[in-house]
Design a protein that fits this description.
Length: 358
C-alpha cells in the first residue's frame, strides 16, 4: 500500500521514512481520517484512457527476456536452424510482435527488431509489459496570464495552509498528471508553496510549472517552434509568440544530457529502431513511435518503456508519452505524406524549430 505524501516520498515503511528524513528533511504521512474537511480540490486530470490508441498502427511491443535463437522460417524450427541469436540478459531489448502461432506444442512469435530484420522466436521468451503513459498535455490558447503546473509524482497533499507539519490542514490529494492553476506563491521552510485556490496549497517542488519562454533569435514571428526546458522537464509548442500546447517530458540524465541550442529537424519517422548504450547497459528498442531527429541522434519521440515524465530519464533524447508525441508529430512541419513512413525536411520546407534550453 502506498502512502500519500507532500511530494517528499512515499511513507510506507520506517526505513523509507528515515532515509527520506535524512535526504529531504521531512516526510508527512496521512493518518487515517486526517482530511480536514470535504472540499472540491481545484485540479483537473490530464490523462487519456487508452494511450496505445495514439501509437502508429501495428505496434505490439514485448521485451526479450533472454538470449534466444531466431528462425527465418517456421520450417527452420523443426530443423533446428537459426540464422542469428537475439537477446541479452544484461540488455533492455524490445521487439514488435507481428504475429504468433503454434508449432508442435510450443508458441512462436514473428518479431521485428530493426529495419528488415525479422524472424520467429519462442513466445515464452517475451514479456508483453510495455509502459504506455496516460499523460496528455494541455492546450494553452486561453492561457492569458494564468500560470499552470502539472503534478509529476503519484500523489500530492492539498492543504488549507502551507504547513507540512499540521496534519489537521490536509484537505485531500491530487494525482500524477493533474493540472493546477497557480494563484499565489509563498516561501515556507526553504520551499515554494503554490496556492491553487483559496485555502488550497501544494508543495511546489513536486509540480512542473509551464513557463513559456521568449521566441529565440532566428525564429520568425510566424514560425512554429518547440521549446524544451531541461531544467523544468517540459516541452511547449509555440506558434510565433503564442504558446499553444505544453506537457511534461523526460530529457537526458546526468552524464547523457540532452544537447542544448536551436535546431531544425533533419528527419521525421512514423517509427524507427533505436539502439545504443548508456549507464553501463545497452538498449535496443524496436519501432519507437513518432520520431523527429534534430541533431545527430538527438530527437524527440514517443516512449513505451517508462512513465516518469517530469524527470530526466533518457540517454539524451526528449522522451514523450504516446499521446504527446503523436500530437507534436501531427502539429509539427513538415507533414508526413499519406502512405509514407518518413520525411526529410527541405530548403522549401525546413521543419519546425526545436529550442532546447536550461
Amino acid at each position: 500500500m502506498e502512502g500519500t505524501f507532500d511530494g517528499l516520498g512515499p511513507a510506507t515503511s520506517l526505513t523509507g521514512i528515515l532515509v527520506r528524513l535524512l535526504l529531504l528533511g521531512t516526510v508527512i504521512m496521512t493518518p487515517p481520517g486526517a482530511f480536514a474537511r470535504e472540499v472540491a480540490i481545484s485540479a483537473h486530470p490530464s490523462r487519456v484512457r487508452d494511450p496505445a490508441a495514439y501509437l502508429p498502427a501495428g505496434m505490439n511491443y514485448a521485451r526479450v527476456t533472454r538470449s534466444v535463437p531466431v528462425h527465418a522460417e517456421l520450417t527452420d524450427i523443426a530443423a533446428n536452424r537459426a540464422f542469428t541469436k537475439h537477446g541479452d540478459d544484461e540488455a533492455r531489448i524490445w521487439v514488435n510482435v507481428l504475429r504468433t502461432t503454434t508449432v508442435g506444442e510450443n508458441r512462436y512469435s514473428f518479431v521485428r527488431w530493426d529495419w528488415g530484420k525479422e524472424g520467429w522466436i519462442p513466445t515464452n521468451a517475451l514479456s508483453f509489459t510495455p509502459t504506455f503513459s496516460p499523460l496528455r498535455g494541455v492546450e494553452l490558447e486561453q492561457l492569458g496570464d494564468r500560470r499552470l503546473a502539472m503534478v509529476f509524482i503519484e500523489q500530492l497533499h492539498v492543504r488549507a495552509a502551507p504547513d507540512p507539519f499540521d496534519h489537521s490542514n490536509i484537505l485531500g490529494t491530487i494525482r500524477k498528471y493533474d493540472v493546477v492553476t497557480i494563484h499565489d506563491t509563498r516561501r515556507v521552510g526553504g520551499a515554494d508553496w503554490f496556492m491553487i485556490a483559496p485555502e488550497q496549497w501544494i508543495h511546489g517542488g513536486y509540480v512542473r510549472v509551464f513557463s513559456p519562454g521568449r521566441r529565440p533569435e532566428g525564429v520568425g514571428p510566424d514560425e512554429k517552434w518547440i521549446e524544451v526546458n531541461v531544467t523544468k522537464q517540459t516541452a511547449i509548442a509555440h506558434e510565433g509568440d503564442t504558446p499553444v500546447y505544453a506537457t511534461l517530458v523526460s530529457t537526458g540524465r546526468p552524464g547523457r544530457e540532452t544537447i542544448t541550442g536551436l535546431f531544425r529537424p533533419w528527419g521525421m519517422f512514423r517509427s524507427a529502431p533505436m539502439r545504443g548504450a548508456a549507464f553501463g547497459l545497452s538498449y535496443d528498442f524496436a519501432d519507437v513511435p513518432w520520431i523527429a531527429y534534430f541533431h545527430g541522434s538527438f530527437g524527440w519521440h514517443g516512449t513505451y518503456w517508462h512513465d516518469k515524465f517530469g524527470t530526466a530519464q533518457s540517454a539524451g533524447c526528449v522522451n514523450m508519452s504516446p499521446f504527446d508525441a503523436n500530437w507534436f508529430f501531427e502539429w509539427a512541419d513538415p507533414d508526413l505524406p499519406a502512405g509514407r513512413d518518413e520525411i526529410r525536411p527541405t530548403a522549401d520546407s525546413p521543419g519546425t524549430w526545436v529550442y532546447v534550453r536550461r
